[in-house]
Design a protein that fits this description.
about 190 residues, alpha/beta, 5-stranded mixed beta sheet, two-stranded antiparallel ribbon, 5 helices, 9 strands, about 25% helix, disordered N terminus, oxidoreductase, PRX5-like
Length: about 190
């Protein structure tokens, strides 16, 4: 007995609570996220596995800057990407950004330790995507065997009320150019 992607999708949809956010149900029909798309309703984790943060609920009703990195503690992420957002956090928030979020396919303890090392408290929320569910739903995952396999491509986005307003994905998925903090156009 074989099931089609459509029948599986219908079955999954029956168990999902209705939200204003999108839900990607299968990788077979998934397309990369684009400007104008609603975020998927996916739980990420902050500080520990006990502290779930639904990204769709977090971004509802406000402007959020979200950036994703291939891995916590990696050189490009630690020396350039994260520090740029830390340096620009106060300006972004004074310009109307409600939250700044860093996402990585790591466990929540690693993200908490990385955030503590860089003094992100009160500036940037460090959210873990341990199984890569969020980046897979966005179709922004990549396979990097030297870093453990499934990882996030490096990207940044501006989100308004759970809808992607701006999206910057590094052309090779890992470089440091268009996804940097000073490249975002988050002002209205």
């Amino acid at each position: 007995m074989f099931r089609t992607a459509t029948s599986i999708s219908r079955g999954v949809s029956a168990f999902v609570k209705q939200t204003s956010c999108a839900l990607h149900t299968t990788t077979a029909t998934m397309a990369p996220v684009k400007v104008g798309d609603k975020l998927p309703s996916v739980d990420l984790f902050e500080d520990s596995p006990a502290n779930k943060v639904n990204i769709c609920e977090l971004t509802a009703g406000k402007k959020v800057v979200l950036f994703a990195v291939p891995g916590a503690f990696t050189p490009g992420c630690s020396k350039t990407h994260l520090p740029g957002y830390i340096q620009n956090a106060d300006k972004m928030k004074s310009d109307g950004v409600g939250e700044i979020v860093c996402v990585s396919v790591n466990d929540p303890y690693v993200m908490a330790a990385w955030g503590a090392q860089h003094n992100t408290k009160g500036k940037i929320r460090m959210l873990a995507d341990p199984s890569g569910n969020f980046v897979k739903a966005l179709d922004l995952s990549t396979n990097l065997p030297p870093l453990g396999g499934l990882r996030s491509k490096r990207f940044s986005m501006v989100i308004q009320d759970s809808t992607v307003q701006e999206l910057n994905v590094e052309p090779d998925g890992t470089g440091l150019s268009c996804s940097l903090a000073d490249k975002l156009k988050y002002k209205e």
